[in-house]
Hints:
single chain; 65 residues; mainly alpha
Amino acid sequence: MDQPSADARDISRLLFEQLADLEEGTAAFQYARNTLVEAHMHLVRYAARRYRTLRNGQFEDVLQV
């Protein structure tokens, strides 16, 4: 798996700091959270693939969790 760039790490760090300061449920909180999720979907897919063989057809379920 490739290492994230310094820019990606910096952006993630800033978004996590924003999340800590924002009120949950606000548009700004949702934006920061969704941006982090989308930016790290490669990690989610990597982890979910490890559980693909547990039960057929549940890969999408693992991704959603």
